[in-house]
Amino acid sequence: MASTPSALARKLVVVTGKGGVGKTTIAAAIGLAGAERGLRTIVVELGDQRRLPMLFADATPHADERLSEDARVGAETALVENLWSITIDLDRALLEWLQALGGRVPGRVLAGSGTFQYFAAAAPGAKELVSMVKIWELTRGERWRKRAGRYDLVVLDAPATGHALGLLSSPRTFGAIARVGPIFGQAERVRELLEDSAQTCYLAVTQPTEMAVGETLDLQAGLRSQLGLQLEAAIVNATLPRRFDADQLARIARLDGSGAVKRSASLAAQTVHERARIQHNQIARLRRHGLTVHGVPFVFAPELDLDAIRRIGRRLAAWM
Question: Under a CB-based contact definition with an 8 Å cutoff, are residues 136 and 195 in contact?
C-alpha cells in the first residue's frame, strides 16, 4: 500500500478548529512553510476576512500602498515570495463559475437567469458550494482565467468546526439535489478532491483546554461519520512545557517557609507546573482518540509578528 504523502505535498490543506484558538495564525504559518520550500502557495480566507494582507503589511516596503490597490475581496494578493492570499468574493466566484459553465455565453446573462438566481440565493448550502468550487479552481493547473496564477499548494483557513463541516459537505448536498447536469458534475469534481487523501489533508487547530479539545474530537467524529474523512493531525497551540520533575517540585515546595519572595516564587512555579500538567492531560486525551498531535509552544508576547509566525511554520514543516 502506498504511503500517504506529507501535508505540503498535497494540493489542498484544510485548517479548521474552534474559534479563537489561533487557526488563522497556523494557516499563515503553513503557507509560509510551503513558500519557503519553493511551492507557489495561496492561503484562502472566507467571508469578509482579510487578515493575512494586514498581517504581512510590514513584510515588504510600501506594503500599505500596495494593499490599498491589491487586497480587494476576490483578488489574489502577493504577500511575500511564493505566497499569496485571497478572500473569496461569492459574487465574483459565482460569476467566474457561470462563465466556465456557459462557455461563450456572457456571465451576466447566466447570472440574470431565474435558475441561477434561485441557485445562488435559495438552494441550501449554495454559498458553501460556490466557495468550494472556487477553492477547487485554485488547485487546478488550468485556471478559468487565462492569466491567473497557478499554485502548488492551497491552504484553506476554514470556518470554525460546525460551519466547516457544512462547507465540506456542500458538494455531497448538491450532488444529491442535482443528480445530473453541469452542477452535479462540478460538485462531483470538488467531492473527489476533498475525499482524495493523496490531494487533500485535514488539520485541526486547538488549544490544550477541555472545551477546545472536546470540539476537536467532535470534528474528528463529524468528518468520519458525515463525510468519511480522516483528521490527519491536531496542532495544539499555546502549549506550556513541563519544566520540573517530582524531585524538583519537592524542593520548590520547601521554599514556602523561607520568606515572602521565595514563597511567591514557589507558588508561581507550582502554578505554572499545574497548568502545564492540565494541558498535557488534554494532549494525552487527543492521543487516546488516535490523533497525531503536534505542539506549538506558548509565545510570551503581546502579539505575534511575522517572524514569530515564520518560526511556527518552520517548526510545523519538520513533520509536514
Answer: no
CB proximity list for 91: less than 8 A, separation 6 or greater: none
Here the cell at position 49 is 476576512
CB atoms within 10 A of CB 77: 22
Q: Would you tell me how many other CB atoms lie within 10 Å of the CB of residue 232?
A: 18
- pLDDT tens digits along 159-181: 998 899 999 999 988 877 777 67
Q: How far apart are CA 118 and CA 126, in angstroms?
A: 9
For the chain, the first-to-last Cα distance in angstroms comes to 20
Is 152 within 8 Å of 138 (Cβ atoms)?
A: no
| CA pair distance 198, 229, nearest whole angstrom | 12
Q: Look at residues 166, 148, 168, 157 and name the one whose alpha carbon lies nearest to residue 88.
A: 157
Given the candidates 3.40.50.300, 3.30.300.30, 3.40.50.1220, 3.40.50.1370, the CATH classification of the domain at 7-241+291-317 is: 3.40.50.300
Chain position carrying cell 502579539: 303
- The sheet that has 77-80: what strands, in order across it? 77-80, 83-87, 41-45, 153-160, 12-17, 200-206, 233-239, 293-297
What cell does 180 get?
A: 445530473
- Length of the chain in residues, anyone? 320
Domain ranges of the chain: 7-241+291-317
Mean pLDDT in residue range 93-106 = 73
Closest CA to 165 of 90, 220, 232, 122: 220
Q: Distance between CA 260 and CA 18 in Å, rounded?
A: 41
* Cα–Cα distance measured from residue 79 to residue 103, given in angstroms and rounded to the nearest whole number: 33
| DSSP label of 156 | E
pLDDT in tens, 28-78: 999 999 999 999 999 999 987 788 888 888 655 544 555 554 556 678 999
Question: How far, in Å, CA of 158 to CA of 31, rounded?
Answer: 14
Please list, in sequence order, all residues whose beta carbon lies within 8 angstroms of the beta carbon of residue 106, skipping any fewer than 6 positions away. Answer: 99
